[in-house]
Write a structure and sequence with these properties.
The complex is a heterodimer. Chain A is α/β, with parallel strands linked by helices. Chain A is built from 26 helices and 37 strands. In chain B, 44% of the residues lie in helices and 1% in strands. In chain B, helix 5 crosses helix 6. The longest helix of chain B has 26 residues. The chains are: A alpha/beta, B mainly alpha. Chains A and B meet through strand 1 and helix 24 of A and helix 5, strand 1, helix 7 and helix 12 of B.
Chain lengths: 941, 217
């Protein structure tokens, strides 16, 4: 009953939206009281600890080494914890998969921890229940299997490499010898595994070393694209792409849609998957394989001839990499070619102990379910109802199973379809262990106690056995104590926890014979389009789709946020009468989905491509209804190619909002993104600086400056998400992005030169010495500091937006709304995300302009430390968030007044250039031009 | 017909017309001036505390060093508030049964922290670091006043931006040697020569100290 009803004894007429006299007076009184009270500060309290032994230094960051998994592969990270709250994730320099850097997935993991959409309580169907009820039901169910030796129990997991989980599964199989274990990842590596078998007769794992390769040929392999190995690959690539630090490598790429690898290639051609298949055969033939070279279009044939020439000649080392969409035979052929080219590839036995193919494993599970052979199904951290091919009918097959339970961080589609759901703890909330792609093991240590009533995967698996449960810490320690040499285990444990990697745990290299030449036949182009499924660089296979930071991160190529469109070549789109942004129905057999269309001038004709992971329906308000589910077009073989598909116009759509719309540079704008051939680079000579009458030289002892090397920026967005995490940058949702109100302080522009190479250009605030934003601010909220930072004083800003209008680089961001209350969580209580915020950075209110200040909080912290130690700030002591995240170390930052600083070495590089130099804004952020190493007779791309 | 207004109406009208001009000026001026008033700044604000802890007794009479309780003041931004354990290092032996200390004993017994009312409060957009001020020779009393003479802790300075800047613009007169940092009775009375010597010894460059980014970010 409202107050109106109480007073008047009747409902208010629906039209009476205006306050009545009493309400107006009440509001007036409340307003006056609030105005008076506003003069005084709200009174706060201080709560100290009770016990000094538990005391942590208030407000100080503490760092813990731990690890996160992507598709089962562990990546060592360092969690930054302030006042008991994890607020940021950084790379672990000791870990071979992160090398001190991150990718967007690692950066965004801390948001998942505080995500209000997380599963918080066990569920029995639609009804919340508790762990005791779930445990009793689970034990009663497994006890019933004592008679059938566990033959009716099926355990479905993703790729599991955690030694402790594997030990627990082994213990389960000892108890229930006929328990069936299935392992399935939607973004699987079946073709690689089978290909290795063809070439070497057994399954093997490969670690290409790009830093040792002189010539790299990518055949549909997005080697710089997203994935568990992206950081290591990108770092290796970058080592050979700075012309001043040694001979450059040369990268050839054939891909279907434009990928980061294609952008970074010295020579790239678009080719539909069948042509990539044939190009691989032609390349092998040119390298001396007794194979008939299939006919190729002239542009592709020329690229293959050039690549073959480079691979054969010069005595360098070549490397041929093939994408997951290609047939196993092509993978085997690449192994053969790598043998010919003396490729730098480390080989070891597979880390994944399961030998079966992912697609076969899931298929056999569904067949067993339908046959009634499965009485109890346990799904651990996998979402087959979302990601399995529709023809398997996983949701329907669940009905044939008497008892189904799903455990996961989110409930998701499978958690809703199963009878029971168990909420798992986040990796930052539990003890565990994991192994990386090269076998290196890491311990996972919690950064915070579980926020909700969740349990770890270990505790969940332990619930199936009646034995009294031990804690996760004891369980993980038991795994490693068994393997230790019996010495000082406590010391070993402490040192290993601190380092983040288990010493000497990498897989031992395998010696392999020369790869056999497989029997391959050229592919024929079928009718209709070939659809390529690509892993999303934002939400991967969909398991990260609930993460609002990742949904709002612009795609590296298309710059789309909140979803992804079907990419088509302009000629195909015209033939299908599809305009950019139109809706289309994609049909493969009886399977169909609705997507919006994007026209990609770099796309291969005869093919279409679509990113995976979007189109969730049961994950939460962030992900649901965003984009279309590409997995819904797959057949039971679960390949990455779907042939043929039909694309039919389906009216108008609301395409995903993009943050950049024009990529091709007009000739007049070519200076925005210079590309220089390595052979044209003059030896470094100091550029005479013209006399400057505008300002006296800066006498300050510190002059902060940043140089970004566009030669090695692969557009991965790690910096964008790192900046968002570090600086409390809000998420605003697709509607606001569509109004061009994106809030990322750091954007990554992508440019293409007509007929030539393009690249990525990260644009943070330029910190102009003659900043156009400063003189137009009426309240001096935009001011310079003595070290050259262009400060934005949030508590002074009154929101005129004059500065934004006057900024030629468009790096200022305005809070049109109360953006710290993210609209994307719908009706959920999203206060939990406030715990992620960096206490060292102000939270900006509505009506306030905000922007990059070179992570001034980090500069300030370093300065205070240095001053307390009575010394100057050392070069490299201040690392901006974007710089620390960058896998290729493209960003250097430091004191320009210090001649020996790394940033000055970069500024002396002949590739150094200033963005929009003609405006005389004298930016402190400058760039190194993209260096290209095209083949001698390289024609237009 | 009798006159409607007697002569005093003239005076009345003049006063009213003058008031129409002056009153808004007085009102606006008063509002502006109120920002410096203790009502707004909180100067001399002396909040009630769960335990009437007397700095006068502990510092002035017993001579406890500030850092005994505010242990992190030299290392971190936050000076640190004593845990219940620190109170009980002495009060498990002294005044063990006084009713005044009941909340402390209960805190230890229940494991529930004491909740103190903050005396010196800065807005959230101000990033103040105790440790750097201590390291650079700003004594505790410079901001917290004569703590040794405060039965209940009192806000000794207005803590306004103008007050902060008065020192950031010219820190010399407010500096002292490290051995007097926690001495609340010490009065920094620096001659210009001594101020300059301290500025040099502490390597302080005021040009940077008035940058917005020093306190706001």
């Amino acid at each position: 009953m409202t107050r109106y009803e109480l007073i008047r004894g009747r409902k208010r007429p629906p039209t009476a939206w205006m306050p009545d006299r009493r309400e107006a007076l009440a509001m007036l009184a409340a307003g006056s009281a609030a105005a008076l009270a506003g003069c005084q500060r709200p009174r706060e309290t201080i709560t100290p600890f009770v016990d000094t032994a538990n005391e942590i230094a208030a407000g100080e960051a503490v760092r813990y080494a731990t690890a996160l998994e992507l598709s089962g592969y562990g990546r060592g990270v360092v969690g930054v914890v302030v006042d008991g709250r994890p607020i940021k994730v950084e790379g672990n320099a000791h870990h071979p998969s992160t090398l001190g850097a991150t990718d967007p997935f690692i950066e965004a993991a801390v948001l998942d921890l505080f995500d209000p959409q997380r599963s918080k309580t066990p569920m029995r169907g639609p009804v919340p229940t508790d762990w005791r009820a779930l445990g009793e039901a689970l034990r009663a169910q497994t006890a019933a299997h004592a008679t059938d030796r566990g033959a009716g129990i099926a355990l479905l997991t993703g790729r599991v490499l955690s030694p402790t989980v594997l030990k627990q599964v082994e213990a389960l199989t000892t108890e229930y010898p006929d328990l069936q274990r299935f392992r399935w990842e939607p973004l699987h590596d079946d073709a690689e595994r089978v290909g290795a078998g063809i070439a070497f007769g057994r399954a093997l794992a490969f670690q290409p070393r790009l830093d040792a390769a002189d010539v790299v040929v990518s055949l549909g392999a997005d080697l710089l694209g997203p994935g568990p190995d992206q950081i290591r690959m990108a770092r290796g690539f970058a080592r050979r792409r700075r012309p001043e630090s040694g001979p450059m490598s040369r990268l050839y790429a054939i891909d279907t849609s434009l990928t980061p690898t294609g952008v970074m290639a010295d020579r790239r051609e678009a080719g539909r998957p069948e042509l990539i298949h044939n190009a691989a055969i032609a390349l092998a033939a040119a390298l001396g394989a007794p194979l008939a070279a299939p006919a190729l279009p002239p542009a592709l044939a020329r690229l293959v001839a050039q690549a073959a020439g480079d691979l054969k000649g010069g005595g360098g080392r070549g490397l041929v990499l093939v994408g997951p969409a290609q047939a196993p035979e092509i993978h085997a052929l690449a192994h053969w070619m790598n043998g010919q080219a003396r490729a730098p590839v480390d080989v070891h036995a597979p880390i994944d102990p399961v030998a079966q193919n992912h697609a076969d494993s899931l298929l056999s599970l569904v067949q067993a379910m339908r046959a009634g052979a499965v009485k109890t199904l346990i799904v651990l951290d996998s979402d087959p109802v979302f990601g399995a091919p529709p023809e398997l009918g996983f949701r329907d097959a669940l009905r044939h199973v008497a008892f189904t339970v799903h455990a996961g961080l989110y409930r998701g589609a499978t958690g809703r379809a199963a009878m029971w759901h168990a909420p798992l703890s986040h990796a930052f909330e539990s003890w565990s262990d994991t192994r990386a792609l090269d076998g290196t093991a890491s311990l996972v240590q919690p950064l915070v106690a579980p926020l909700y009533d969740t349990r770890s995967a270990h505790a969940f698996l332990a619930m199936m056995r009646p034995a009294a449960d031990v804690g996760d810490l004891q369980r993980v320690q038991a795994t490693w104590r068994a393997g230790s040499d019996g010495g000082d285990f406590a010391g070993w444990w402490t040192n290993t926890l601190a380092a983040g990697v288990v010493p000497q745990s990498a897989a031992t290299p395998a010696t392999v014979p020369a790869a056999r030449l497989p029997a391959v036949t050229p592919a024929t182009t079928g009718p209709g389009l070939t659809l390529v499924l690509r892993p999303s660089p934002r939400v991967w296979d969909g398991r990260l789709a609930a993460n609002a930071w990742l949904q709002e991160t612009p795609d590296p190529i298309s710059k789309e946020t909140w979803g992804s469109s079907l990419a088509l070549a302009p000629a195909d789109a015209e033939a299908l009468k599809l305009a950019a942004g139109a809706a289309a129905t994609v049909r493969a057999g009886t399977r169909l989905i609705q997507v919006s269309v994007r026209i990609d001038p770099g796309h291969a004709q005869g093919a279409a491509s679509l990113q995976t992971g979007f189109g969730q329906v049961d994950l939460g308000p962030v992900a649901d209804g965003v984009g279309a589910n590409a997995f819904a077009l797959r057949d039971a073989s679960q390949g990455f190619l779907i042939q043929p598909v039909e694309v039919l116009a389906a009216g108008a759509a609301r395409p995903p909002p993009a943050t950049q719309h024009v990529f091709e540079l007009a000739p007049a704008d070519a200076g925005l993104f210079p590309v220089v051939a390595a052979s044209d680079l003059a030896p470094a000579k100091p550029r005479p600086s013209p006399p400057d009458l505008l300002t006296p030289p800066n006498p300050a002892p510190i002059a902060w400056a940043m140089v970004i090397d566009t030669s090695v920026c692969i557009g991965c967005n790690a910096c964008v998400v790192a900046c968002q995490a570090e600086n409390n940058v809000p998420v605003i949702g697709p509607e606001e992005i569509a109004h061009e109100r994106d809030m990322h302080w750091l954007r990554v522009d992508r440019y293409e030169h007509p007929g030539g190479q393009g690249g990525f250009q990260p644009v943070p605030c330029m910190q102009c010495e003659e900043a156009p934003c400063e003189p137009v601010c009426p309240v001096e909220a935009s001011v310079h500091d003595s070290e050259g930072l262009n400060d934005q004083v949030y508590n002074r800003c009154i929101g005129t937006r004059f500065c934004e209008s006057n900024c030629p680089y468009k790096v200022r961001r305005f809070n049109f709304h109360d953006n710290q209350h993210w609209p994307v969580f719908g009706q959920l209580d999203a206060r939990s995300i406030e715990a992620q915020r960096n206490p060292e950075v102000s939270v900006r209110a509505r009506g306030v302009m905000e922007k990059c200040t070179y992570c001034v909080q980090r500069i300030s912290a370093a300065r205070r430390t240095a001053e307390k130690e009575d010394r100057p700030i050392r070069d490299g002591e201040v690392t901006t968030a974007c710089q620390g995240a960058c896998p290729t170390q493209a960003i250097s930052f430091g004191n320009r007044a210090d001649p020996s600083a790394a940033v000055n070495a970069a500024r002396r590089d002949p590739r150094h250039f200033v963005l929009l130099e003609e405006l005389k804004t004298k930016p402190r952020t400058t760039y190194l031009a993209r260096a290209a190493n095209p083949p001698d007779d390289g024609g237009p791309r | 017909m009798a006159q409607l207004f007697d002569p005093s109406a003239n005076t009345f009208l003049r006063v009213v017309m003058l008031a129409l001009v002056v009153a808004p000026l007085v009102f606006v001026g008063g509002m502006v001036a109120s920002q410096w008033s203790p009502f707004t700044t909180g100067l001399d604000h002396t909040p009630e505390q769960p335990v009437p802890f007397s700095h006068k007794h502990h510092v002035g009479e017993l001579g406890l060093d500030c850092r005994y309780c505010h242990a992190s003041v030299e290392d971190t931004a936050f000076a640190g508030m004593p845990s219940t354990h620190i109170c009980m290092t002495c009060h498990s032996q002294l005044f063990t049964n006084v009713p005044m200390l009941a909340p402390v004993r209960e805190s230890l017994a229940d494991g529930r922290p004491l909740i103190w009312n903050r005396v010196n409060q800065l807005p959230d957009y101000v990033y103040f670091d105790h440790s750097i001020h201590i390291a650079k020779g700003v004594g505790c009393a410079e901001c917290h006043g004569a703590v040794h003479d405060m039965p209940l802790m009192r806000q000794a300075q207005p803590l306004s931006m103008g007050w902060c800047l008065s020192c950031h613009r010219d820190p010399g007169p407010h500096l002292r040697a490290q051995n007097a940092i926690t001495d609340t009775t010490f009065v920094a009375d620096n001659s210009p020569q001594q101020a300059a010597a301290l500025m040099k010894a502490y390597d302080i460059h005021p040009a940077h100290l008035t940058d917005c980014s020093v306190c706001h970010r």
